[in-house]
Design goal:
By secondary structure, this protein is an alpha+beta fold. Helices cover 52% and strands 7% of the residues. It folds into 3 domains: 118 residues, Arc Repressor Mutant, subunit A; 78 residues, no CATH class; 38 residues. The protein has a 4-stranded mixed β-sheet with strand order 1-3-2-4. The model has no long low-confidence stretch (mean pLDDT 92). This is ImmA/IrrE family metallo-endopeptidase.
């Protein structure tokens, strides 16, 4: 019987092959999903306990992946990759919605897909080999480098390192309590991590939908209030932003009226 781990690893490898990603880190997963897969991505304030979900329009087939705002950017990336895993693995969406709450076999498999997609074993081995490291001789700074390079949580990094044979006995357990924030603080990349936290905690509407809304606004089809509502901002803030860049609705050309004597 083929395991969830094997199925997920194969699906992640096939995905990387299909989109020419090699084994390098995926620098902008949101953009990859929106631009290459044509799937909308939204970052939203969600109810506690809900990290992400997939919704599919039953009529158009258009899909949207929503992930929660968070101060843990690595967790948000993993959630986004997890939701993508559901789609890649063909998981059934009841009523067009996949909510990731219960720890079902499908959830465990999607977790494994996310791990292999974000930090493939070949990529981890290539990275460590490139900085002249040898197996079972890593230190905490090396773990920090892997976490930062692949933009993953400590737990994902440790699992992948362990599975690829890089950790000495006991290291996975010894380092499991290290948070990304602590690694960043100890190894010099706190500013970078804080910038990522700010981005991950900021709501963001799907790029395609905002683009369509802006086109409609510039062509006098919708008002600025609609654009602001889609983006989750105040009308005043959006107005100030558009004023800064000189963006405004096109002038309305009224038809010329002709008045003359009736015959």
């Amino acid at each position: 019987m083929i395991s969830n781990e094997h199925t997920a690893a194969k699906a992640a490898a096939n995905f990387r092959l299909r989109y020419g990603l090699g084994s390098a880190p995926i620098s902008d997963l949101n953009d990859l999903i929106e631009s290459r897969l044509q799937i909308d991505v939204a970052i939203l304030n969600m109810a506690p306990g809900l990290d992400g979900m997939v919704v599919q329009d039953p009529e158009t087939g258009q899909r949207i992946i929503s992930v929660a705002c968070t101060l843990w950017p690595e967790r948000q990336r993993a959630t986004l990759a997890h939701e993508l895993g559901h789609l890649e693995l063909g998981d059934f969406a009841k009523d067009g919605v996949i909510e990731c709450i219960l720890r079902t076999s499908e959830e465990i498999r999607a977790d494994a897909f996310a791990r292999h997609l974000l930090a493939p074993s070949e990529g981890v081995t290539g990275f460590l080999g490139g900085i002249q490291k040898t197996r079972r001789d890593l230190n905490e700074a090396d773990l920090s480098r892997v976490v930062r390079y692949f933009e993953v949580s400590t737990q994902i990094a440790l699992i992948q390192l362990d599975r690829a044979g890089w950790l000495a006995p006991g290291q996975r357990e010894e380092w499991s309590s290290l948070s990304v924030g602590k690694l960043a603080a100890r190894h010099g990349w706190t500013d970078e991590h804080q910038a990522s936290q700010q981005k991950a905690n900021t709501p963001q509407a799907p790029m395609r939908i905002v683009e369509l809304a802006m086109d409609a606004y510039e062509n006098n089809l919708i008002g600025l209030e609609v654009v602001a509502r889609i983006r989750g901002l105040t009308t005043e803030k959006v107005q100030a932003e558009l004023n800064e860049y000189g963006i405004m609705p096109k002038p309305v050309e009224l038809p010329t009226s002709r008045f003359g004597r009736r015959k």
